[in-house]
Amino acid sequence: MKIGFIGLGIMGKPMAKNLLKAGYSVVASSSNPLTNEEIKANGGQVVDSLKEIAAVSEVVITMVPNAPEVKDVLFGEEGIVDSLKPGSIVIDMSSIDPLASKDIAATLRERDVQFLDAPVSGGEPKAIEGTVSVMVGGDEVTFEKCLPILQTVGASVVRVGDVGAGNSAKLANQIVVATNIAAVSEALVLADKMGVDQTQVYEAIRGGLAGSTVMDAKAPMMIEGDFEPGFKVDLHLKDIRNVMKTGEALDLDLPLTKFASDILEELDEAGYGKEDHSAIYRYFEKLGKEKK
Amino acid sequence: MKIGFIGLGIMGKPMAKNLLKAGYSVVASSSNPLTNEEIKANGGQVVDSLKEIAAVSEVVITMVPNAPEVKDVLFGEEGIVDSLKPGSIVIDMSSIDPLASKDIAATLRERDVQFLDAPVSGGEPKAIEGTVSVMVGGDEVTFEKCLPILQTVGASVVRVGDVGAGNSAKLANQIVVATNIAAVSEALVLADKMGVDQTQVYEAIRGGLAGSTVMDAKAPMMIEGDFEPGFKVDLHLKDIRNVMKTGEALDLDLPLTKFASDILEELDEAGYGKEDHSAIYRYFEKLGKEKK
Q: Domain named 6-phosphogluconate dehydrogenase NADP-binding: which ranges (chains A, B) (predicted)?
């Protein structure tokens, strides 16, 4: 089976290389000549255009920043929609808003092309290890066909529901992560203002009901003031904007998402967009200093 | 060593019984005759007043609802302060605001009585098992003296810092728990409005960065609509009011605490005070229905 891979960035490139290592035939076409060399050196095929990728692939994976880029790859001037083989499958592994996933699936279905939304969580190191978590939306038959491919790039692959469900789960994930980072920040700033050692507080509460993966991953970074990414503020902001967009389309108030959105926008404007999202702590630290 | 135990409620009674089982001499005086019988049946001593408890104890443990009750037990009309033996220790295991702990410690110190604030996390089942987490504030010498006692009632006993640090950690804990419950709620309501099965979303995200003890304990309750306590809304509200009070005293804005406080107040007023704090979900569920 030939797999086309579009979007050989920080996440996409290692995922394509893992598919090659597993013996899949991968065809790609990067605008970056060095990336093309790397794909060839790993046994992949490089062609001249995205359309050529589509013309020869049974499955096309897209891994790009957001919905406009996915739509551009599919339906734009250089878009592949007319080159896709009938009966082929597009797996969009980008994190986009789930309503866009549904629109894309509907349009492709008219061309006899099946679609899965399959966003991932876990950063570059997990993409390299092939251990990202994949949340999938789409029909069961298409999911089963693609499962071996997805299991090659991810450690956990869960079909959440029909098309859009993968990105709905991803947005749910991003709400919880952003808010929990904010909660740990507020708690640690309070401890600091009470004159209590933050590390001691972290150690005292991490084993109880307050404990979380976020707390263990991010509290030490907050305490050290070390915001090396990790998952960047501007990427989390992109996801949170997609949550806001989805909430608006559903006419649903999302007060915590709105709160996280305001903080992330402020951080991004202040030049912290390339820091780890644990830099949300900066907002609470500032609250602690303002009135001192 | 004789331990006086004041406050034989849902948490205090099993803790006193665990001390008796471990061989400590415990003296108590409940207003409930059945509780007094139970203490006697377990080998404890029952006296007629709190003052008599203080007069014969090397260590007095208090486990009452909040700071006013602690102050009443110590300094009120029936208060024990003048009966405490010089050189004795008061361990307050109630969850109160840390500034009150500091005030109490200062007053007791003038009488040559040492003080620890040692609030616990974990509910009635853990109190019965002797596996609560104890967060302790106080000087190291007093802490070391009381450590065997605290280890009898708790599985984890951490000295967080000087007096007030135990309750500062407890408040930090309660901020994170309330906010994380709210975050999981908002995420699950969004998933539901997107037409995605909430259990599938929970399963898809629980293993990643969004995963937490709160999510595993509370998401299934939210999905089932089962809010049997557990830890009650009105108790979490009491703690969150203590956070607000502490924030005001420090002139520190705590936006997430304020948000949690508004929700918990609303739930309590609507008659949900005796439900589990996972009933915070009700607030977000209502947001999801309002505009439908």
A: 2-161
